Amino acid sequence: MPIFPYNSLPKSPTFHFEKFQSYNSHQTRPGSHRWKNAKKGLQFTVMTVGCPGLGRTTFINTLCEKSVLPAVEVGSPETAHEEQPMTFKPYNVEMEEDGIKIAFTVIDTPGFGNGVNNEEHFKQIVHYLESRYEETLAEETRIKRNPKFKDNRVHALLYFITPTGHGLRELDIKLMKRVGNRVNVIPIIAKSDSLTVNELRDFKKRVMEDIDQFRIPIYNFPYDAEEDDEETVEENKELRNLLPFAIVGCEEEVMHDDGSLLRVRNYPWGRVEIDNTEHCDFARLRFMLLNSHLSDLKEITHDILYENYRTEKLSDEQTGEPMAVDA
Fold first, then answer.
1. How far is Cα 95 from Cα 104, in angstroms, rounded to an integer?
2. Cis before residue 244, ω within 30 degrees of 0?
3. So which residues are the signal peptide here (predicted)?
4. Which residues of 166-203 are buried (b: 16+ CB within 10 A; e: fewer)?
5. How many other CB atoms are found less than 10 A from the CB of residue 43?
6. What is the percent of the chain with per-residue pLDDT over 70, rounded to a whole number?
7. CA 324 to CA 27: how far, in whole Å?
8. pLDDT value at position 8?
9. What pLDDT is stored for residue 147 in this prediction?
10. Could you tell me the sign of the dihedral formed by the alpha carbons of 92, 183, 282, 98, in that order?
11. Which of 67, 104, 174, 248 is the most exposed place for a label (fewest CB within 10 A)?
12. Under 8 Å between Cβ of 163 and 7
């Protein structure tokens, strides 16, 4: 059966795709220069946000390489017209990446974007993020701190973009702008195999143009060409060029000719291999989240995003004015 190379986009001369071929989730991953010694393991929290039907459940199970979220139940036709409230559902998974244990928490947000007016959903997500900062701030101001305090701050928010091919929708723009100063936003194109090669390339371009035009703060793999080493600069340039990540999820495995197991989505015209970097960006996204940039995401959360919140909070307490909320 032929392979459908839907993500065989024109490659920049600076791209080194062969390096990413080793990012297969079923292989031993190379060590990262960013990893710090963590004998007790690392704690990492990710939130997934997107409209219903974009495959968040499949993506999370594919990311964790196990069944973490239950299959979504099909609702009754009699209640299909009723608006369902958005909820926050955390799932805890013990993982090991490159020999380091990770206490991984993924927070799903079922119900987001299914209303006529989703303003309340924006407020709920911002409140959730800030409440986790508030817990940390309260702990830091204690005279005697709790040695077993668990840091529940969200280190990255994966925003699932509907593959319309026409750029960002108003819902996408509003949500990412609202949360961009509270969390590392990483935009991803869900179900990217629904687009052709040219459509996907053009859609990525339009999304990034919208992000630039509307000044949407996202995690764009920052680097300092003078301060950072050459490897870090090159890696971040390559990952920045991939934004938004085009992903495909699949929990089913098939046997390859060499006896290895592959996660594959089969179509009448061919197949998409989930962990093949020539087919989609899933392997790169997974490696970035759970290996190469995990520490960076945590540091930015603590040193920049949390410190900004803390400064605003303490300043408002001194002036007696409530914290400003972005429109």
1. 7
2. yes
3. none
4. ebbeebbbbbbbbbbbbbbbbbbbbbbbebeeeebbeb
5. 17
6. 81
7. 47
8. 38
9. 79
10. negative
11. 67
12. no
- Report DSSP letters for 26-92, one per residue: TSPPPP-TT----TT-EEEEEEEE--TTS-HHHHHHHHHTS--SPPPPPPPGGGTTSPPPP--EEEE
Domains of the chain: 40-65+86-318 (3.40.50.300)
Q: What size, in residues, is the chain?
A: 327
Written as one letter, the residue type at 80 is A
Global pTM reads: 0.84
Tokens (6 digits) for 218: 């996202």
Single-letter amino acid, residue 191: K
DSSP 8-state symbol, 3: B
Listed in sequence order, the residues at least 6 apart from 314 whose beta carbon sits closer than 8 Å to its beta carbon are: none
